[in-house]
Amino acid sequence: ARRRLSKLHGQSTRSGKTQSRNIPCVLYLLRESISGTPKMSRHQNGEEYRNPTEVKKSQIVMPCHANHRQELSVGELLKWMDSTACLSAERHAGCPCVTVSVDDIHFEHTIGVGQVVNIKAKVNRAFNTSMEVGIVVSCEDLFSDTHWSVCRAVATFVSQRTTGGKVQLRPLVPCTQAEQVEHSLAAERRRMRLVHADIMKDLLANRVQEAEKAVPAERTRVESVELVLPTHANHQVNTFGGQIMAWMENVATIAASRLCNAHPTLQSIDMFHFRGPSHVGDRLVLKAIVNNAFKNSMEVGVCAEAYQGEEPLRHINSAFMTFEIRDQEGKPCTLPRIRPEPLEGMRRYQEAIARNKIRLDRKYIISCKQTEVPLSVPWDLSNQVYLSYNNVSALKMLAARNNWLLNSEKNKVSLYTLEQKQVLSFKVETEVDIPAERAFMLLSDLSKRVEWDPNYERCELILRVNDDDFLYRVVTPSISQDGVQDFILLASRRPPCDSGDPYVIALRSVTLPTHPPTEGYNRGEVLCAGFSILEISYFNQASPEVLPYISTDIAGLSSSFYGIFCTCNTFLQENRVDHTSTPQSQPPSSTLKRTQL
User: Of 185, 332, 393, 533, which cross-links 296 as Cys (Cβ 3.0–4.6 Å)?
Assistant: First the structure.
């Protein structure tokens, strides 16, 4: 098979022709692709392509920007990030924009005095009235000519007319492979933001009692008042969002210092969410307190409220910041436990435990590179959302690759291959005469796959998590001496977010305590699998357990893939009409007469 691939690769290189096609649809993957940094696209005239919404900012860190350790203050960095992202959002909207929220930020490195901060922001996707802006922060040392990453962030902005009211945004058309991936993943990140509150409710059901010997939380309480001056306002005469975030970081740092009587290091920030505007003349009341302390980190809750004259306080923003105390060698110190205040203090204490669990899930499942994530991750309700996100995003990233090589073709059923970093992937492409939405409904029910796929011997539904996520146990027939295999799969399906998006059905392996490996079955692993349907293509990044099912096709010794897809086509045609429910209205993209598989 590898000799066959090498031969095909050489033929493609010599001919100078690209064998891949721009396929927007059904994908099937059996391990997540490894996403690297795409090369800059170029126009036909040879000039480098640049996103029209991209804004860059470079700033030398001066002593006035630094803290007591001669490192750039995080509050100052937040102001620079927010202003750069705002300019990017306004480039796309064509009118003033305001910050709605900033997703979690994890700071990888610090920045010293004399070093240069480089910030790049660009709009990833525009929805109806809001847009997601991606922010990348890096640092460079001018003397050693070294560069390193500092952090990444995602902010949400809305545009507003001067007369009030939100502006309907025009769609953003991605042009490069990297832009297509971010554009697609923006919808999944938006989905995670919307379900964050539900995750908190589920985790708060499991309460943990506080330690008896602990530092009183009241000792860490900080309150500070700032008068909003014209210098603190943006061009819309509202208090600059970055300035509010900087003030919040300041009081949070003081609260963290009071727990251990030492200088803390800010590690990460949970989502900033602006609940209302602040104006010049406001008195901004900033409050911070340590909600909980874990072994090597503590969570500080901070909120900002505003008032003028005798009016009641208005809630402006809330955030949760994670700090560490480091010794002289830079290693995290063990922290004392915190004793919460009664009532509200206990609520904050319990919620901090839940948020810490969420942070670990996000860092472990979402933030890691795909090669750093084990194949099967333990599944539970608390990390379900992040596993589902990882599942769908892995599928979309493999679909966005544009260097597939045509291996063979038979009666308009094409087999493509892709080999990167010693990982073999394949893609099968064909067309069926059925609306995309109906194909989505049929293919998302894995229990029906045994009717057309000979590689599915049995499929058992273990749990219906919600309308979009399901857990299955799949048994595949034996084709080697290893015997019968089974898989525990998380199936995540997504309808289109916009009219131009595909339908997505993603699969990946998980582990369940209720379904351990059983005698007589070899437990197989699937990092990511699924379908993406607008037109339909079939992808598979083959794991060792999957490669035997396709190796003869890749080597040109068989065309079993053609027979499977013919059977799939027959299955879809026989079930193209749903006789069990009333037809619903469909978006234009899902009513195509022919759907490419």
Answer: 332
